[in-house]
Amino acid sequence: MKMFMKSKASPAPSRSPSSAPVGSVPGSVSTQEWIPIKDVYNGFIHRKDGALVCAIRVQPKNIRLLSKDEAIRLVKLLMEVLNGIDYSYQIITIPRPVDLDAYIAELQSLKSNEENPIKNRLLGNYISQAASVAVSGEALDRLFYILIDEFPGNKKQKTELILHQRASELVSNLMSADLMSHLCSDDELRELLFIFTNLSQAAYERAPKDNVLLPPIFEMRD
To answer: Which residues, other chains included, contact 155 with Cβ-Cβ below 8 Å and sequence gap of 6+?
Structure first.
């Protein structure tokens, strides 16, 4: 995952004994220092080394469902798109566990209202099978991304514009190659980072959203 990491390895910053966190091992690196991500805004992942990263979400297509000629045509179109890229990029795929709780709850509701004993038994078998798959973690949804990074020059806004234009052009080329894709928003970038760093929780938790509404605070006045 080199796009998330720094391009060159740098030694851990030295700490004086007085500045080290309480309970830390001398010479160790804190979690904040280990994670190379500084922030996410304006459609970019801002790394701590100053680099900007944008992501393109690509919807997968099963070529086994296509004819031989259609599959060859799709592969050739994709090769043309990738061969036309003259900048740094990375293709990644992340497996995300699928939350089957809603599906199991629906089956349980159908089973509780089913009077036919044969259908009731079949629904019970389906519930047991779905619960087994959920516990084993076999139900996975694969997400595909193309990451593009760039180190900003003297004018950061100009670099953001260039990077955004590259990503938009790549999205257009992928769409022309019959591959549905789009440029990831801030929320989608947070989801990507959340899945990457919290894979076990990704099935039942979601990345935090913008503009989270907090409950009102009531005050009692004399």
So the answer is: none
